[in-house]
Amino acid sequence: MSLLLNSSFTGASSACLLQRERSRRRRLHVPGVTCRQGSNGDRSDAARQQQSPLLLDRRDMLLGLGGLYGVTAGPKVLAAPIMPPDLSKCYPATAPALDNKCCPPYVPGETISEYSFPATPLRVRRPAHIVKDDQEYMDKYKEAVRRMKNLPADHPWNYYQQANIHCQYCNYAYHQQNADDVPIQVHFSWIFLPWHRYYLHFYERILGKLIDDDTFTIPFWNWDTKDGMTFPAIFQDAASPLYDPKRDQRHVKDGKILDLKYAITENESTASDSEIIRENLCFIQKTFKHSLSLAELFMGDPVRAGEKEIQEANGQLEVIHNAVHSWVGEPSGNYEDMGDFSTAARDSVFFCHHCNVDRMWDIYRNLRGNRVEFEDNDWLDSTFLFHDENEQLVKVKMRDCLNPTKLRYTFEQVPLPWLGKINCQKTAETKSKATTELSLNRVNEFGTTAQALDASNPLRVIVARPKKNRKKKEKQEKVEVIQIKDIKVTTNETARFDVYVAVPYGDL
Ligand code: C2O
Question: Recorded GO terms, molecular function (predicted)?
Answer without folding.
Answer: catechol oxidase activity; metal ion binding
